[in-house]
Amino acid sequence: QVRLVESGGGLVQPGGSLRLSCVSSGSIFSRDGMAWYRQAPGNQREWVATITSTNIPSYATSTKGRFTISRDNAQSMTYLQISSLEPEDTAVYYCRRLASNTWGQGTQVTVSS
Hints:
This protein has about 110 residues and is mainly β. Helices cover about 0% and strands about 50% of the residues. It is built from no helices and 11 strands.
């Protein structure tokens, strides 16, 4: 059974940076694409970024070049680095394993002064 656990969220001031982590267990991680999503209060969950099993990233236009997705297959980890944080980035961030459509429980990011 595939399981995902996110971490790294918190309260950050505008302009700050954060790195979110997602650890995967349960099957061969390196063969699978991974993605990050976010859901702000009152909004639908939206796609943020994807990284393929061959390390090719893609991003939603809303990330404005401030987000970087990466992975470490040896550690079964997926990361999302966010820079120049804005209040509009406030959301619960989720990672998703694509082949099994498995989701983590989410990690809260709050951007506020």
